[in-house]
């Protein structure tokens, strides 16, 4: 067996299952889960119809690079969303969801034979695929804290020069999971300068880009590069997905875009990896990327939901409306002494509400786990259910238990 598999830690939801293993939740209350970031809004009918209309494509092997019409739908969307003009032939590729692509990109980019050993830089807390992708590519992982005193911005300035010198890949998540923070242009400028100096690739995970609460949509990595005169997107790959934008997590559809030289190598890897997108999925994807009205309506649902829930929780939790994404990243009250796992376990036992301990989404770095004492709540269910969960959390905290 691959010995690198032994370096992987249990996934957060497996740790949550273990936490709850001997707990019997209050049977008088129906279960409400805010634990998993799985969109629950209905999939638009026009996407379903496009999928079934494309079933004839199942009779043929799909091209790994995707058909021209599919790639054109990506670049058309990038033009509409970010005013960017990318070449559909060389600067975009279809992927089977951003999770698959994040993992595969690390296998493409990292040179495990490098001396000293390569480093993959990750925000902390983080989406667990970053860590697994780095370890299975043969790299070490360096965790950069997202600091509460900086509105959960990643503290890139804290990374030592010797780490940057060994870095081959840097994961950026903006809007962030779990914090919802959006990286501003000056931070992108700083990261691009470091990439130019040390040669590392930046993977910009942007799967939450279309769920936001401000008037201005979140800045994207490619957009930031263009604003800074980096039209070739050197050493930059952006990854996005339809899962959250269009409520189709089961479609497993997204795309990557950016540096044509990296895209070329990534296509070579994917040709052998066997990760071509089904023609039926491609048909549904083209329809989804080509329509914005359902995205506007989806965003409005989240805005209404967060507007209803956040004020209920603010008096009892250290929480506020995020920049974007569908998570609330909340600090637990002082009486739990920073024990986010105990808070989650007791809440589940007494009020049958599931939240994810923040420490499960982070790693100890410099003796500190930046997720400790916080919980992640995914407001993915309907508004009534999320409000009911918020009211139970308020009762739980005020009960003094």
TrEMBL record:
Entry EC number(s): 2.6.1.17
Q: Which principal EC class is assigned to this enzyme?
A: transferase
Q: Which Gene3D superfamilies match?
A: Aspartate Aminotransferase, domain 1, Type I PLP-dependent aspartate aminotransferase-like (Major domain)
According to the entry, every stretch annotated as the Aminotransferase class I/classII large domain falls at 32-379
- Looking at the Swiss-Prot or TrEMBL record, what is one Pfam family this protein matches? Aminotran_1_2
Give the source's domain of life in one word. Answer: Bacteria
Molecular function GO terms recorded: succinyldiaminopimelate transaminase activity
Q: Does the keyword Electron transport apply?
A: no
Database matches in InterPro entries:
Aminotransferase_I/II_large, DapC_beta/gammaproteobac, LL-DAP_aminotransferase, PyrdxlP-dep_Trfase, PyrdxlP-dep_Trfase_major, PyrdxlP-dep_Trfase_small
Cite the entry's keywords alphabetically.
Aminotransferase, Transferase
Q: Which cofactor does it need?
A: pyridoxal 5'-phosphate
UniProt cross-references to NCBIfam families, sorted A to Z? DapC_gpp (TIGR03538)
| Stated name of the protein | Succinyldiaminopimelate transaminase
The organism's lineage is:
Bacteria, Pseudomonadati, Pseudomonadota, Betaproteobacteria, Burkholderiales
